[in-house]
Amino acid sequence: MARRLADGQTDCCDALMASLGSPPPLIVWDPPVDDLESEALRHLIGWWHASMAEADGPPPPEMVDPLALRPALGSVSLLDVLDQGREFQIRLHGSDVGNTLGMDMTGMKVGEMTVPFMAFLIVTYRAQLLRPEPLLLRYTPAMEFFLSAWWRIGLPLMRDGKVVRLLIGMERAPRQPEL
């Protein structure tokens, strides 16, 4: 499924989300900055594009500067790529996101989380390993799992031609209609 998503088949996750009781997600590769509703996410993608120009490609993790990300810092999570994308570990979990979820997930491995829609997020993370460019998501977890929907932008950070970390920006979004 990650390969299909990386190839541009943005509806490939619809059936997965339906099986989890969620409406189809919005998935957009390399969204224009001005199309983003969230000021924090606009700031993050603007930073990524500026850093990409400076690095002459997707920026390395060392270019992440908390001061440069200050307007979005509480919405930022960093995920380390482990075992060539078989697993991901949350290096940093944004305080605003943690407060919304009621928990700090710093240090947790994504594959160990028991929330069913994590399967969808893992697909998107793996797709970004194959296609290292910004990926915008809007998704609504099933009601029994969480009351918020989310805007999420994933920004790949690379070293030696490989994505080694994902900078994720997240903000609450209005829920999509129930199925």
Structure description:
This protein has a single domain, classed as PAS domain (Beta-Lactamase), CATH 3.30.450. Helices cover 27% and strands 25% of the residues. The chain has 5 helices and 6 strands, in the order H-H-E-H-E-E-H-H-E-E-E. It has helices at residues 2-6, 14-19, 39-55, 95-101, 118-130, and strands spanning 26-29, 76-82, 87-92, 135-139, 149-159, 162-173. The protein has a 6-stranded antiparallel sheet with strand order 1-4-5-6-2-3. It is globular and about 40 Å long.
In a few lines, what is going on in this structure?
It is built from five helices and six strands; from the N terminus they run H-H-E-H-E-E-H-H-E-E-E.
Could you state the oligomeric state of the chains shown? single chain
Give the C-alpha Rg. 15 Å
Q: What fraction strand?
A: 25-35%
CATH class: Alpha Beta
Structural class computed from helices and strand pairing: alpha+beta
CATH architecture: 2-Layer Sandwich
N/C terminus separation: 22 Å
The number of distinct structural domains comes to: 1
Give the spatial strand order of the biggest sheet. 1-4-5-6-2-3
CATH superfamily: PAS domain
Predict the CATH topology. Beta-Lactamase
Q: What's the number of helices?
A: 5
Quantity of strands, as a count: 6
Q: What's the SSE pattern?
A: HHEHEEHHEEE
What sort of overall outline do the alpha carbons produce when their principal axes are compared? Answer: globular
Helical coverage, percent range: 25-40%
